[in-house]
# Entry
Amino acid sequence: MIWQLDLFLLILVVICAVATITVKDLLSATIIFSAYSFLMCLLWAEMGAVDVAFTEATVGAGVSTIFFIAAIFRTTRRSKD
Amino acid sequence: MRISVQEARDRIPHHDIILETTVRLMVPFIQLYGLYVIVHGHYSPGGGFQGGVILGASVILFALAFGLPASQEYLSEGTNILMANAGALIFTGIAVLCALLGGMFLDYSALVKILPIDPISWRSHGIFLVEVGVGMGVMMIMISIYWDMASAGHLDEGLHMASASQTDKVL
Amino acid sequence: MKSLALLATLVTGALLLYGTADFAAWGDPQSPPNRNISVHYVEQAVKETHVPNIVTAVLGDYRGYDTMFELVVIYSAGMAVMGILRRREDQ
# Structure
């Protein structure tokens, strides 16, 4: 565990998390959420939990993003608030 | 693939040669990697769940690029439901089979009565059988959820139709 | 209302951060979670299951019940989506 890398990744995770809930365009929010999942995957891998990182990369960054995009295409792209 | 390239191209409104060629090249390798992740779960990170999601994602990628009907030529709806149920049934079936053969629920060493090898080896092989069931179930469920969400349950055109009708609303 | 929500979030976050101060150090072999059953898994998993990857051994064998219901959860989610959304044209 390298604390500099850890700090860098955690700061990026916080930035991505805040950006996901503030961005008005839902498609952008989905893509930023995918980036968030991938950064979490890097964090898991860096802490040695490779199986969890694998699951996060496939489910979090891969399939759930596609499901979100499918839902957005079927509803509206702009958030109302 | 049972469907020709021309047929798939006719079905979708906006086809893109770069996208289609890339997806056609990538899908077999993604599927091979998914199978590798499932069967190599004993020795490296991975296992049934992750491999199943990768296999499902390969078919979803195919559906995204070529349209939903093309992916249903590749994997029919009946096969999808059948294999989703079979995957869940393999896991629970093996668990119950262990109990019926005199061991405990999910105690794979009880399967030694079916094929007499080392009970410790049966625990390893039991894990493998169960992982195959998990992979099959997860793959088919992921594909089925994507089909339903992309076509709003009609299983017709998928996102291509949705994007065509939504363009003026979005922009 | 928004400032109230921000205040609630900050207070909850501060409490959670305060809670993590009592966590054991990362990877500490003497911490309570690592002293109970983990020792048995690390020492005996390969001998008892012939699976070199301990994570797979734990997920598939020792905690097989957990993995089984994980699959059941995914299966129920798929069947629920199918039951709510899917409709055929002839119905």
Notes: Residues 50-74 of chain A form the longest helix (25 residues). Helices of chain A lie at 3-22, 26-46, 50-74. Residues 25 and 78 of chain A are 5 Å apart (CA to CA).
